[in-house]
Amino acid sequence: MSIISEFKEFAMRGNVIDLAVGVVIGAAFGKIVTSLVEKVIMPPIGWLIGNVDFSDLAWTLAPAKVAADGTEIPAVVIGYGDFINTVIQFLIVAFAIFMLVKVVNRLSRKKAAEPEAAPAPSEEVLLLREIRDNLRK
Description:
Elements lengths: L2 H9 L2 H37 L8 E4 L2 E2 L5 E2 L2 E3 L1 H34 L9 H14 L1
Antiparallel strand pairs: 1-4, 2-3
Helix pairs in contact: 2-3
């Protein structure tokens, strides 16, 4: 088997394709959540706290400087506001995944709880059982 045909067989398995679809949808969902957090959720929270823009929150360790040769040395900053936004994004994604898993589990439990009814035995089987029972007597 050549390497190309082996790779084709690997790539066309159902699990690999499902995984690829999941990654693409997950990336798109991540962009939606990022936009939701940065543009919809955080502005009202910042407004309630006192007109704070969380993406601008930072702790400056060393201010920007100009070196002796005229080059600018940027400030050393810890951007904890972006971290807060990322944590909120994570919580939203985790909650959405939790709800999705909960729905899938509920649907799978309903399917498992409803076992298929066994088909009624045919007349021949009933007759053979009756003969067997009579012979035991």
